[in-house]
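Input (structure):
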């Protein structure tokens, strides 16, 4: 298995060194790496809508009222994996674990309609397979500078002083500090002069169900000469993305695989566009997948030693939304 992926990452390096534009999709465990040059995208079943790159030709109308139902697992069920995570945190095996679940949903929209009518910084539709509408950048590379924007911590925007509460929430704050620290360390593997440029910046996210505030930071560095132009090597080094895994990474990955008991697949993987010079990539979250005739929404949140079962269960459910309004 390894050699095939290794070859794919090398292929990414080769193309980026030759300055050939391409789109890449990498699953959570970096076991499936797909590369599409610009002329191959149309036949790949992918439709992409990023801030600076879009393959949308025309925007179809939405002529129906959106129906949306989710069937989250019981708290008892959620608790099984949550307890495994907490036990590992108590044992000192991890201090932050991103625990995710898979929820059955029903909607009168097709995956393609969800793609066209949801609002997000990053959207991708993969024919008959999945759609996601992600607010989270993974890394950007601009003129030899690499930037990442970890997003951790959300709150219902309808609450009074919601943004302030989020900024000062002990648990959310600890989680945010941890992820910033983790990603600063990650970037240091491929970059020099790594620094935090913005800390605990609050973003507003509008959805049909409710409005949310999310907390993010900005970290940047200067690519080391040996990684210059080698996008595949950079991705191989940085994945899986720290913000959707936890810390420390290797042990936390073991905990996640044991506690979740389902295959994340492409969910929480990354995808991105290399334009021949610069890169914009995102973490594939806010993710709906089709299995047979059934749709599943995958969502989760970070667990620390301060996490309360009820709150985490609620957060997992809060995130099962579609940003159509």
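Output (sequence):
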């Amino acid at each position: 298995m390894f050699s095939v992926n290794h070859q794919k990452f090398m292929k990414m390096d080769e193309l980026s060194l030759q300055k050939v534009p391409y789109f890449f999709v990498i699953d959570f465990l970096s076991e499936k790496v797909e590369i599409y040059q610009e002329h191959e995208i149309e036949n790949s079943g992918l439709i992409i809508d990023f801030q600076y790159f879009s393959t949308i030709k025309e925007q179809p109308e939405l002529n129906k009222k959106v129906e949306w139902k989710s069937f989250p697992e019981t708290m008892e069920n959620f608790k099984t994996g949550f307890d495994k995570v907490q036990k590992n945190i108590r044992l000192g095996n991890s201090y932050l674990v991103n625990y995710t679940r898979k929820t059955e949903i029903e909607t009168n929209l097709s995956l393609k309609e969800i793609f066209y009518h949801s609002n997000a910084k990053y959207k991708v539709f993969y024919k008959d397979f999945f759609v996601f509408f992600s607010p989270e950048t993974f890394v950007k590379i601009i003129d030899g500078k690499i930037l990442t924007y970890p997003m951790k911590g959300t709150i219902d925007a309808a609450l009074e002083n919601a943004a302030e509460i989020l900024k000062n929430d002990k648990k959310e704050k600890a989680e945010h500090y941890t992820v910033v620290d983790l990603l600063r360390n990650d970037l240091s593997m491929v970059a020099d002069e790594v620094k935090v440029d913005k800390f605990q910046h609050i973003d507003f996210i509008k959805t049909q169900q409710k409005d949310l505030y999310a907390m993010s930071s900005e970290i940047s560095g200067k690519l080391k000469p040996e990684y210059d132009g080698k996008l595949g090597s950079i991705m191989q080094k940085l994945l899986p993305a720290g913000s959707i895994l936890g810390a420390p990474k290797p042990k936390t990955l073991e905990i996640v695989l044991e506690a979740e008991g389902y295959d994340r697949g492409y969910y929480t993987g990354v995808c991105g566009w290399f334009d021949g010079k610069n890169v914009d990539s995102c973490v594939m979250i806010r993710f709906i997948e089709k299995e047979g005739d059934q749709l599943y929404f995958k969502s989760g949140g970070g667990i620390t030693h301060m996490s309360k079962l009820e709150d985490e269960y609620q957060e997992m459910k809060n995130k099962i939304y579609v940003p159509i309004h």
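Notes: The chain is about 30% helix and 35% strand. The first strand starts at residue 22 and ends at 26.
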